Amino acid sequence: MSCLADTSVGLGLRRALLGPLRDAAAGDFDFLECAPENWIGVGGRLGEALDELAARHALTCHGLSLSLGGFAPLDETFLARVRRFLDRHRVALYSEHLSYCADDGQLYDLLPLPFTDEAVHHVAARIRQTQDIVGRRIAVENVSYYATMPVDRDQTALDEAAFINAVLDEADCDLLLDVNNVYVNAINHRYDPHDFLAAMPAQRIACFHVAGHYDEADDLKVDTHGAPVKDAVWSLLGEAYRRFGARPTLLERDFNIPPYAELLGELDIVRRLMREHAPASITHAHA
After folding, report:
1. pLDDT, tens only, 21-73
2. Which of 28, 157, 202, 210 is deepest in the core (most CB within 10 A)?
3. In degrees rounded to 5, what are phi and psi of residue 152?
4. Which of 140, 77, 71 is nearest to 101 (CA)?
5. Residues in Cβ contact with 287 at an 8 Å cutoff, skipping those fewer than 6 apart
6. Strands 9-12, 249-252: parallel, antiparallel or unpaired by DSSP?
7. Domain for residue 223, yes or no?
8. What whole-number distance in Å separates Cα of residue 182 and Cα of residue 25?
9. How many domains does the chain have?
10. Taking residues 253-264, what's their average pLDDT?
């Protein structure tokens, strides 16, 4: 399995970008990220393109359908296929969402978990099972959510940061810290994003994600991955670098994909923020 340098910057591997990514100049990006569900078993022209890109660039995988917080048994057959995919392409990091997305079938959305001790034990056990099957440590992502799950009166409610920390500790897994999700949730649920960052465990952060969102209203933001990154999110990413140092950082863009040059411009912002706010990490990487 290959490893990513902390100063790596990456792009999401989307089929609409296959041409530009295959023609990319050396140094445009350091790694690509794909959803294994979208590529396992794909052959022909698309499979050849994936093989070529994975041979030339480090690859990470970010799952969409595992439903770590759900109640249906984990799909062990699917996870075995994921493991073969990760091994074949020497995938540097496999991550999933700290949510659930299935109930008698895929719900095609990432739904929040109740922030309780009971939910901590439930999802941590499923993360440990996943790690056993795929044969490696995984990372879980803090998700955007638009409603909080009710908590029974006999359950102790945690805040989001405490819940995430408890899951990470009990599962002994890593964190994929999505900075846009921190900002979106902070606005929608009226908490301080800086306090949230301060509560995250530096030693478990494997990667950052950054993306654009939609401003539905001043007090309602929607995580879309379909727009340029907002200035407030860039500022929060800079704070994350100051607090935690450089980490591999992925720019997500899932639709309304702009010309490739515009994505490279956003990657340049990522690199500039690393240089300005995590200079010790940059110096160490080039020592």
Report:
1. 999 999 999 999 999 999 999 999 999 999 999 999 999 999 988 889 888 89
2. 210
3. -60, 155
4. 71
5. none
6. parallel
7. yes
8. 32
9. 1
10. 95
pLDDT of res. 258: 96
174 has a pLDDT exceeding 80: yes
How far is the CA of 157 from the CAs of 85, 190, 194, in angstroms? 38, 17, 21
Please say if the pLDDT value at position 107 is more than 50.
no
Rounding to the nearest 10 degrees, give the CA dihedral for residues 76, 78, 83, 88: 160
Mean pLDDT for the chain?
91
Tokens of 108: 């095609």
pTM for the model stands at 0.93
pLDDT tier for residue 226 given thresholds of 50, 70 and 90: confident
- Under DSSP, the state recorded for 58 is E
Contact yes or no for 12/34 (Cβ under 8 A): yes
* Residue 70, token pair as written in the block: 């759900």
CA–CA separation, 62 vs 79, rounded Å?
13
- Rounded distance between C-alpha atoms, residue 28 and residue 15, angstroms: 18
CATH of residue 129's domain is 3.20.20.150
- Cα separation, 284 vs 282, whole angstroms: 5
> Does residue 112 lie within any of the structural domains?
yes
In this structure, what are the phi and psi dihedrals at residue 141, rounded to the nearest 5 degrees? -100, 135
Please give the residue range of the domain that contains residue 124. 9-278
How is residue 168 written in tokens?
A: 């990470």
Cα–Cα distance, 233 to 216 (Å, whole number): 16
Q: Which of 191, 83, 234, 68 is nearest to 139 (CA)?
A: 68
